[in-house]
Design a protein that fits this description.
alpha/beta; Rossmann fold; 4-stranded parallel β-sheet; 9 helices; 4 strands; 44% helix; globular
Length: 262
C-alpha cells in the first residue's frame, strides 16, 4: 500500500493492520550518461511497493534525501547539510511513528547511504523511541544475483542497475548513451595505505560510473527485480513477527534509566 494513495481513513486502518512502514532511502544524483537522476529512489520505491503487495505494509512516499556529497560536483544532485539531514530524517521517522507505526524498515536504495543508515541504527540507542528501525543488509542470495549477470565489476549505473531500471522505467533509460568504455576504478588513491576519505569514490569514478552497462537488458532486470522483491517480502514478514528487537531495546533502556538512580 502506498501512503500517498490511501484515503485518511484507509490509511489509519492500514497502519493498525500492518504496524510496518517501509521507506526506500534514495537520493538524486548523476548516473553516468544514460540513467536518470532519480534512479535510486525510483527503483527503491518501486521495489518496496511490489514487495508490499506480497507482504502487506505501507510504503512511504518516494524519498530522495540521503548522503550524496560525493556527487555535489554534478548537475542535478540534491544535498542537505549534514546536521540538517540527520535532524530531518529523525523528524520523518517520528512522524511515521506518530501516524501509528511501531516498526520502520529503512530500505537502502543507494550505496552511499550505507554508512549513514548504519549510524542511524546506532543512534537509535541514544534516545528511547516508541518505534524501532529495521535496516536489511542482505535480502537475497548474492550468487543468484551474480549468475544473472555477464560482467564482474558493478557499483553505479552498471549492468545490474541499468537492467533493473530497464525493467522498472524503460522510458527513462538511454541505452544509446551508455559509455563505450567501462567505468573501471582509476585507483587514484592507491599510493596510500588502505584509507577511507570522502573523496575516495570520486578518486575511482570521476564520471560517476562504475561497471559496464553495455550488456544490460530487460530480461536480466526482470530476474533481478524478482530477487529483490521476494527478498524484501520475506523480510517484511520477519519484521512483523519480530519481538526480539523490541524486547532487547526495552531491556537496554531500562538498564540505562536505572543508572540515574545511582
Amino acid at each position: 500500500m502506498q501512503w500517498e494513495n490511501l484515503t485518511s481513513d484507509d490509511f489509519r486502518a492500514a497502519a493498525e493492520a500492518t504496524q510496518v512502514c517501509v521507506i526506500a532511502m534514495g537520493v538524486v544524483e548523476r548516473h553516468s550518461d544514460h540513467l536518470p537522476l532519480g534512479t535510486d529512489f525510483l527503483n527503491g520505491h518501486r521495489i518496496a511497493c511490489l514487495a508490499a503487495e506480497k507482504e502487506p505494509a505501507v510504503v512511504f512516499p518516494p524519498f530522495y534525501f540521503g548522503q550524496i556529497y560525493e556527487a555535489r560536483c554534478f548537475p542535478g544532485t540534491i544535498n542537505l547539510k549534514p546536521n540538517l539531514l540527520l535532524d530531518f530524517l529523525w523528524n520523518v521517522f517520528d512522524e511515521i511513528a506518530r501516524n501509528g507505526f511501531k516498526k520502520i524498515v529503512l530500505l537502502n536504495a543507494h550505496g552511499g547511504n550505507t554508512h549513514l543508515l548504519g549510524f542511524l541504527g546506532q543512534c537509535a540507542l541514544w534516545e528511547e523511541k516508541p518505534y524501532h528501525l529495521y535496516i536489511p543488509t542482505n535480502l537475497f542470495d548474492r550468487d543468484q544475483w551474480k549468475a544473472i549477470l555477464e560482467t564482474e565489476y558493478h557499483g553505479h549505473a552498471c549492468e545490474c542497475e541499468t537492467s533493473v531500471t530497464l525493467e522498472n522505467f524503460p522510458e527513462l533509460v538511454h541505452m544509446e548513451r551508455v559509455p563505450a568504455v567501462p567505468g573501471d576504478p582509476k585507483g587514484r588513491m592507491s599510493d596510500l595505505p588502505a584509507t577511507y576519505n570522502g573523496i575516495l569514490w570520486y578518486a575511482d569514478h570521476p564520471n560517476h560510473y562504475a561497471g559496464d552497462a553495455r550488456t544490460a537488458s530487460v530480461e536480466k532486470g526482470k530476474k533481478l527485480v524478482s530477487l529483490e522483491v521476494e527478498g524484501l517480502a520475506r523480510y517484511l514478514a520477519a519484521v512483523k513477527a519480530d519481538q526480539i528487537i523490541p524486547t532487547l531495546t526495552a531491556e537496554f533502556f531500562a538498564k540505562e534509566n536505572g543508572l540515574a538512580s545511582y
